[in-house]
Specification:
Layout: H1 2-14, E1 31-39, E2 50-55, E3 61-66, E4 72-79, E5 81-88, E6 94-97, E7 101-103, E8 108-115, H2 131-139
Parallel strand pairs: 1-8
Antiparallel strand pairs: 1-4, 2-3, 2-5, 5-6, 5-7
Length: about 160
């Protein structure tokens, strides 16, 4: 009986530990990062400008950061989703928008380029107050918010 008990103890100690004592498996990474560079119309880096990450799902801002001296930016710990990157001027007006970007969970998206619609637009100016600015943005596919178009019979031209 003692030999049987001793044999069982030896076998049980040499067997692999049950999963109760196993280290937990690493969790799947659910957040991602997105990096790129903000540039002016002529390709010059836009240093120290505000860059916004906007969700295309709900239209809300997901994050806001400032570019470095070379116009580079990195958003970290962002959830998977569809986004666009926006560059704003000192007054907070959007002066450039990226194409739609799909970010998968755990992904590291790099090389995103965002260009302003006008050279020097990051420093301010009346670009958004002009018809040229609105037409340029619309032609580039960028969204223009809070624009009201009105006509009345006294000033409207006939369609004939």
């Amino acid at each position: 009986m003692r030999r049987l008990f001793a044999s069982l103890v030896v076998v049980s100690l040499s067997a692999p530990a049950p999963t109760l004592f196993a280290a937990p498996a690493p969790a799947a990474q659910s957040t991602a990062s997105l990096a790129g560079q903000a540039m002016g119309r002529t390709g010059q880096p836009l240093a120290n400008v505000t860059v916004q990450l906007r969700s295309l799902t709900d239209g809300k801002l997901a994050a806001t950061i400032t570019t470095d001296g070379e116009g580079k930016f990195t958003f970290t710990s962002i959830p998977a989703g569809n986004y666009t990157v926006e560059v704003t001027n000192a007054a907070g007006a959007i002066i450039g928008t990226s194409a739609a970007i799909t970010v998968a969970a755990g992904a590291a998206v790099t090389g995103v380029a965002v260009s302003s619609a006008l050279a020097g637009a990051a420093s301010g100016g009346s670009f958004f107050g002009s018809t040229l600015g609105i037409i340029t943005l619309a032609g580039a596919g960028a969204a223009v918010a809070a624009v009201t178009v009105a006509a009345n019979t006294g000033t409207a031209s006939s369609s004939r």
